[in-house]
Amino acid sequence: MPQADTPPLSVSELNRRARLMLERDFGDCWVEGELSGVARPASGHVYFTLKDERAQLKCALFRNRARFVGSPLNDGDRVRLRGKVSIFEPRGDYQMIVEAVQPTGQGDLLAAFERLKHQLGAEGVFANARPLPCPPRHLLVLTSPTGAAIRDVLAVLAARWPLSRVSVLPVPVQGKEAAPAMIRALALANRDARFDPERDAILVTRGGGSLEDLWAFNDEHLARAIFHSRLPVLSAVGHETDVTLSDFAADARSPTPSAAAERLVPDQTALRQRLDSALSRLARAQRSRLDAETQRLDHLRARLRHPGERLAQQRAHLGQLEGRLQRAMQSRLVEARTRQRHAGARLKAFDPRQQLDSARQRLAQADNRLMAALPRQLAEHRQRLSSLVRELQAVSPLAVLGRGYSILADDEGRVIRRSQDTQPGQQLTARLGEGRLKVEVKRRFKSAPAPDQAATQAKDQAKDPQRQNEAD
């Protein structure tokens, strides 16, 4: 028991010491179980729980390791994990940092195969479909040099097409080193093909075996290497019922190595038979063509005439053509002369000089009429203008001003019509018949009353002089 005066640990310090102890004591270890709660956040890391019948363990597969996992991780998959036990200090979570993932059992291999097949198919890795040369000038075979597949291939090639040039690129076809070795061999074959144009096809093959035996041909990187191969690739792996990702990525697939060899080269026996048949048809065609040409020559000889007879016929025909040409020329000449006479007559009838003289006469007459009408029109316009001037002067306010009247207006240009519209001291403008005056209002007077009203006002003023003064 620690002493009472021992200083306590902080939570972070406790978690740190526990993490160091776990990582130091356990190190790397393998754990097998079933996946559950697989999560893939945007960071690229993969988080999941590994469980069995009695316990569970939180796991973290970081992005730099997740990209090396060949098949995607799904809930329910049974896997083997390699990693180290640790603690996530911020939360105190006990977890395993995963370094590698391996599927377990044949069922898991089939599931991984289907997942990888779907992934590569979606990426277009299985889109190759280039034609294979038949026969290839130089065939490269990637297989085991001691296996039954290469013996079957060579036997079929020798029987069907002995002229085949074959190069064997020895590679392991089973185990962990098989896929990398085949990838390197494919790269070497494509590189050397740039210097040897005779190399025009690659055969990837091996004999039958279990799913585990053929698993190297389901490698993702091998499938991509086959897809990117510059040379067309034919895949023949296992028996007829065996299917691998290499078959899908290749340009063509054959069920067995022997069938691949039969597909690559023609059968010499069948070719000899076809050649013999073609030679027989050629001989018959030559004889038929010779008979037909001989008969045609006989007909041409029968139709052939002496050149002198042919020349006489041509001379007679030439004479006929010459007579027709002369008659046609005479007829065309007569027609041209007739058209010329008619055109001359029409031109004389429409002589421009006659039309010009007639136009001059009409112009002189119009000039005389214009000179006679011009003074009369001027007199009429002067008379009408004088009448309009008199009418304008009769209604013009300037004429009224000329008789001694004036128009008063205030500073804003309003015309003063009543004395009530002004104020004593107000400046007004008086417009006269000639010029303007600036005047000032000294007094205002009311309008002159009617006679009856004037008498009445006079009486009122006599009675009340003060009222008269107020009115003024």
From TrEMBL:
Pfam families: Exonuc_VII_L, tRNA_anti_2
UniProt feature coiled coil, ranges: 275-303
Catalytic activity entry: Exonucleolytic cleavage in either 5'- to 3'- or 3'- to 5'-direction to yield nucleoside 5'-phosphates
Record has tRNA processing as a keyword: no
Biased composition regions of type Basic and acidic residues, renumbered to the chain: 460-472
Start-end of Low complexity biased regions: 448-459
Gene Ontology CC: one annotated term: exodeoxyribonuclease VII complex
Annotated Exonuclease VII large subunit C-terminal domain residues: 128-439
Protein's GO biological process: DNA catabolic process
All residue ranges annotated as the OB-fold nucleic acid binding domain in the record: 9-101
Leading EC class: hydrolase
Region (Disordered): 440-472
InterPro entries listed in its UniProt record: Exonuc_VII_L (IPR003753), Exonuc_VII_lsu_C (IPR020579), OB-fold_nuc-bd_dom (IPR025824)
Family: Belongs to the XseA family.
Subunit structure: Heterooligomer composed of large and small subunits.
Function: Bidirectionally degrades single-stranded DNA into large acid-insoluble oligonucleotides, which are then degraded further into small acid-soluble oligonucleotides.
Listed name of the protein: Exodeoxyribonuclease 7 large subunit
